[in-house]
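Support case: S-adenosylmethionine complex. Customer-provided input:
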Amino acid sequence: MSEFIITTSPILHKALLNDLKHIDSACKIKKDFKEGRYLIAFSKNPEIIIKNIVQKRHFFLKHIHPVDYSGNLLNDLNKDVEMLQSCIDRIGLSPDNRFSIQVINIENQEYTAKDIEVQVGQYIEKKYAIEAYFNDYDLPDDINQQIINILIFGNNYFIGLGTARNNLCSVSDPYRIFSRWEMHICRSEFKLREALKVIDYHPIEAHTAIDLGASPGGWSYVLANKKMKVIAIDPAKLDAQVLEFKNVTHEKIRAENYSDSVKANLIVNDMNMEPIDSANAVLGISKNLKTGSLLIMTIKFTHGPYDKRIEETIEILSKQYSLIDIRCLFHNKQEVTAFFKKT
Ligand SMILES: C[S@@+](CC[C@H](N)C(=O)[O-])C[C@H]1O[C@@H](n2cnc3c(N)ncnc32)[C@H](O)[C@@H]1O
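Agent response - structure generated as follows:
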């Protein structure tokens, strides 16, 4: 028997649960914390669950962490911190890897997530002399980092120890990080920046990117700002700040009508379109794409079954692309982000 808190997009939680049943047919949702976070009870032990989840990461799973202890809060900061500290003493941290504390507070007005992070963090540093890692500005890339996840939901707390690797993402609330990043055009900039981070892709100066469905221009801005040549394709307007870039060309047409044979190094596609049509539009454009070039594409869901929409997209693109990965990024709501390589 084990419990985990998972994060997904609310519309995808049923599809995710169906998939988790392949690991443990008895698994069920015990609590809905809202915002796409759920407490899931499994009948198998935590090691088996995590091993399976890390081995075959499900597309719709954004984040997962174990719940080692849970209970009621007293809504007195000092007393509650003491209670959480006694949980940590029982969990047993390793002295070999640095730690971070990630607290999410949902519907508790008595104190903030930061109050708990600071107090509990100082306690661990002092008592266990383990190096703390706190960074509100970037996603850490140390996969062995120990993470104490604490979820406060009203008067309840849920605490568990994981690692960045086993949690599938090094932070439980990337919004805290992304919201500190500067926004120039629109919020979807963060979606591309998260995608580039996940796939560890660094845009190269003077390389060419085709941006399908570019308006208002968030993604084009991100790539042009990294000095890529950007061909922004969208019948809708681009923001004036994007048009100011000398390295951005706006093709004010539908992607299906774009016929230039540019040898691009990257295609990004965020078109509001049925996945099958979107995939076909990509094929029409990528005949001259260099082998090994990356395609980053959002697969947008207007209707289920979502797994089927993904399968169909992969099938169509397989004529010219091989799949690298599919992720439900923190910035994906009714969609996933797929990464392909040109064959
Ligand atoms: C979600 S928005 C893209 C936002 C963009 N990634 C950004 O960062 O600003 C989707 C865009 O797809 C465009 N679109 C829809 N169908 C299209 C098509 N057939 N060809 C090109 N663009 C299309 C829409 O005009 C819309 O601007």
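The chain has a mean pLDDT of 93.

Case will auto-close in a few days if no follow-up is received.
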